[in-house]
Amino acid sequence: MSEQELFGYASAIVVGLVIGLAGGGGSILTVPIFVYVFNIPTVLATTYSLFVVGSTSLVGSLNYIWHRKVDLRATVAFALPSFISVYLSRRFLVPALPDPLFQFERFVLSKSEAILYFFAIVMIIAARAMIKSDRPEQGEAADGRPRYGNLALDGLAVGLLTGTIGAGGGFLIVPMLVLMAGLPMPRAVATSVLIIAVNSFVGFIGDIQHTQPDWNFLLPFTGLSIIGIFIGMYSAQFVPPDKLKKGFGWFVLVVALYMISREIT
């Protein structure tokens, strides 16, 4: 095993660690790891990302459910439309995208490059949110009642994002659960992990009908990520997540800029 591959497998632990600490965010590392460290084609990398994120988040969500930290009503309101969106995007939208996606004279934008550019933009948005660390106030929604209708619409949008780039969207889910469902931050993080788990598995199911995963690679990577989420959930009791999220945000920003510069060159 090369040093590059060892680095890639070690990064799997970081993916789980961040999900355990913040309820999301680690998933936006999986696609760059698969593409640039393991040289996996972009579309297949998004498929692998869905499985890793789904499995890791599922393990974490079971622990949260056991300790009754998950809000099941908010989960249903957000997740049902999100499931539909992520499944349809993985089953029909991503396979239907033409390759090349755009061509004008000598300029050619391939399907893989377009997905990576979109992914990098999402990473920059996520990094900005982590660095600023602007968390909404805890407590009930502004009108005193959970806004389940708005949650459902947000679920549709996050499902499309998850299905397109293979990221769980936790950095979007957590603030929406606080603002629209009135959940306290720890409960929003726990609920977000469950939503990410099911969202990712639904997307993966939409993929395996036309993809044959390499389980000899995927299962060990996922196992290391699961170890990471246990470390993250344990560390969350002692380490201020805001400071870690800010540092992680800068790291994500650097990775996003690297992706863009590499694709341009």
From TrEMBL:
Which keywords does the record carry? Cell membrane, Membrane, Transmembrane, Transmembrane helix
Name of the protein this chain belongs to: Probable membrane transporter protein
Q: Does the keyword Transcription regulation apply?
A: no
Please list every transmembrane segment annotated in the UniProt record, as residue ranges: 12-37, 43-65, 72-94, 114-131, 151-179, 185-205, 217-236, 248-264
Which species does the entry assign this protein to? Spirosoma linguale (strain ATCC 33905 / DSM 74 / LMG 10896 / Claus 1)
Q: Where in the cell is it found?
A: Cell membrane; Membrane
- Predominantly, its location class is membrane
Q: How does it sit in the bilayer? A: Multi-pass membrane protein
| Pfam families according to UniProt | TauE
Q: Which domain of life is it from?
A: Bacteria
Its family remark reads: Belongs to the 4-toluene sulfonate uptake permease (TSUP) (TC 2.A.102) family.
- What is one cellular component GO term in this UniProt entry? plasma membrane
